[in-house]
Design brief:
Blueprint (H helix, E strand, L loop, with lengths): L3 E6 L2 H18 L4 E6 L2 H9 L3 H17 L4 E4 L3
Parallel strand pairs: 1-2, 1-3
């Protein structure tokens, strides 16, 4: 049975890379996973990153993870760069 994978999206390129990697690996293994993603506005992330407020960055990521967990994902991935 295919997994339900959640992407915690921090940056558009990072989220796109995660999605592409999931589908590439799924195709190679014959799996067809369900994929859900959550993203806070990128500019919110950047304002916290630019001020080096990593606690707020982590809080945003945790908020996304919690939303995806409530949506039923079985595991989460993220790439913030």
């Amino acid at each position: 049975m295919s997994k339900h994978i959640g992407i915690v999206a921090c940056s558009p390129p990072g989220a796109a890379l995660c999605y592409q990697a999931i589908l590439t690996e799924a195709a190679a293994t014959g799996m067809n996973p369900e994929v859900s993603m959550h993203a806070h506005p990128f500019l919110v992330y950047m304002s916290h990153i630019e001020s080096s407020d990593w606690k707020k960055v982590a809080d945003l990521m945790l908020s996304s993870a919690e939303k995806l967990t409530r949506a039923g994902v079985e595991f989460l991935i993220s790439r913030c760069r």
